[in-house]
Amino acid sequence: MTKKDIRILAFESSCDETSTAVIKNGREIESLIVATQIKSHQRFGGVVPEVASRHHIEVITQITKEALAEAHTSWKDIDAIAVTYGPGLVGALLIGVSAAKAASMATGLPLIGVDHIMGHIMAAQLKDEIEYPALALQVSGGHTEIVLIKDPIHFEIIGDTRDDAAGEAYDKIGRVLGVNYPAGKTIDEWAHKGQDTFHFPRAMMEDDDYDFSFSGLKSAFINTCHHADQIHEKLDKYDLAASFQASVVDVLSHKTIRAIKEYKPKTFILGGGVAANRGLRERLSKEIEQLPADIKPKVILPDLKLCGDNAAMIGAAAYNLYQAGIFSDEHLNADPSLELPYAERMLQ
After folding, report:
1. Is 141 annotated as a binding residue?
2. 226 belongs to an annotated ligand binding site
3. Which residues of this UniProt protein bind Fe cation (predicted)?
4. Which of 59, 66, 188, 194 is placed for a possible disulfide with 242 were both Cys, Cβ 3.0 to 4.6 Å?
């Protein structure tokens, strides 16, 4: 007997991207629509929550229709509806959760609430098969974490940021350099044109744990630039970018490689918006390649279009929950401070 295909319609609205997607069997993207708000927020130098929520309201119905049309499907072809319910901006999350709950109630289709970070990690599933146990470095504007993944639904954070996330630090130093939000891509490009001449601090790199701290690096960078302004010294923007990125990449790669040596995962996954950073991708790939064969994991770097917030990754994660029989009900609500581990909480 031919196994029935499972199609999930997914919603993502945790920050400043409104996205819908139809995912087949947790591996195939049949459609992916992303309505970006970057231009609306650039003039403010960052995301304004109220503005983000209004934009989500304006487009979410239309892009739902577009996702179904692009996938050549109708509601009768959909098996479940998935949505990010945290972490993120509470107003933005509520738009997606409300849309998904309305669709679930109107169609009778089961509802699956998905952790945003779980989604970023499961974007890897859309590129290649994940062999478990796996280890993920999740790096974005709001989160910097090392996550141990026991199986498709069990996640354990073994390292977290104690203050600024790496992506947040990129945006903050970008403002000092006059780079429009989001600053990560430009800083990465500049870094490849400069040299690490400033030797900024590598906080907590030699600590025994897997936690991170980037506030000291951010302060050191800003103080260097402010001091130069006061004495009318012009600093090379490419060297500044290269020095900043070298510090971030050194810390992230050092702790990740140490975690791989300790936990010996079969797969390593890089996830989150900063996973699009060329310097980080190159460094981790190189260092993992140099590991002994008996502990060298398979490496999955998500496609660049799946590094940012998108509904495809939510659909991929939701498929795993669907297979495990983990569903949400009409009481599902936005949780802006949601944290992994996931499955243990949902099964309580």
Report:
1. yes
2. no
3. 116, 120, 309
4. 194
